[in-house]
Design a protein that fits this description.
- This protein is mainly alpha-helical.
- It is built from ten helices and seven strands.
- The longest helix has 25 residues.
Length: about 240
């Protein structure tokens, strides 16, 4: 059985409300439904070829989790990106991900480190025709950070980092659309790998923190450039 056939079989057995939730959440994270988009049950059901009942359940769940807000008489609004969101999410990432790098040092096999090197080699291309490559970039970025967390054997830490990357994903995607760069962006994670391979836990921790601080600055600047193009709030409420 092919991988695609296995995936189809799993998805066919998935409860409809879970499928609706997964598809809607993925669409929000990936920017298919941009911040400020109004979603109705009808629209979401038609988009994913589902009935209204599972979509209604998924929308309520996403509203409860903070991905959506209720829009009076219109349905649900995809929560706008705010500078507070960006600061809070990167603030947490700067706490947990450097610590994960520290804890992972000395726990990874050479084969695992080589795998992480492969993830770090994917660049973000500043080209609208490079959509498939850039999907790989986001997937590789997530896999790199989650992979380090997995090496700590702390399941709660892994879950926290996974959730942070879900929230950060749509911020990064929107921010990168407004980067005024003439060069492409690479992860720059090789230095973290080198420190882990050398057994330098403190070095891996410091490098991870520095790289996140740089990413936060770049993304914040890009978001500010995009304020005129999309509803972005600056409120700290």
């Amino acid at each position: 059985m092919t991988d695609g056939a296995v995936l189809d079989q799993v998805e066919n057995k998935e409860p409809l409300q879970d499928r609706a939730y997964r598809l809607l959440r993925k669409a929000i994270c990936r920017g298919q439904f941009a911040p400020g988009t109004i979603l109705s049950e009808n629209h979401a059901a038609q988009t994913f070829e589902l009935t209204k009942a599972p979509v209604r359940s998924a929308l309520r769940r996403l509203e409860h989790e903070g991905w959506l807000t209720v829009s009076a008489r219109r349905g649900y609004e995809v929560r706008p990106i705010t500078l507070r969101d960006t600061q809070d999410i990167f603030g947490l990432r700067k706490i947990v991900e450097p610590q994960a790098a520290f804890m992972a040092t000395g726990r990874m096999t050479p084969e695992r480190l080589t795998e992480l090197e492969g993830f770090s080699g994917v660049s973000y291309l500043a080209d609208v025709s490079a959509e498939d490559n850039n999907e790989l970039f986001f997937a590789a970025n997530r896999a790199f950070h989650v992979g380090i967390a997995q090496a700590t054997d702390n399941l709660r830490l892994v879950q926290i980092i996974e959730n942070l990357h879900d929230e950060c994903d749509r911020i990064l995607r929107f921010g990168m659309q407004h980067l005024n760069w003439s060069i492409d962006w690479q992860h720059g994670h090789e230095a973290i790998i080198d420190a882990i391979r050398a057994g330098d836990a403190a070095g891996a921790q410091d490098i991870a923190h520095q790289q996140l601080a740089t990413s936060e600055r770049i993304v914040t600047e890009a978001l500010m450039q995009g304020v005129a193009d999309l509803p972005i709030g600056s409120s700290r409420d």
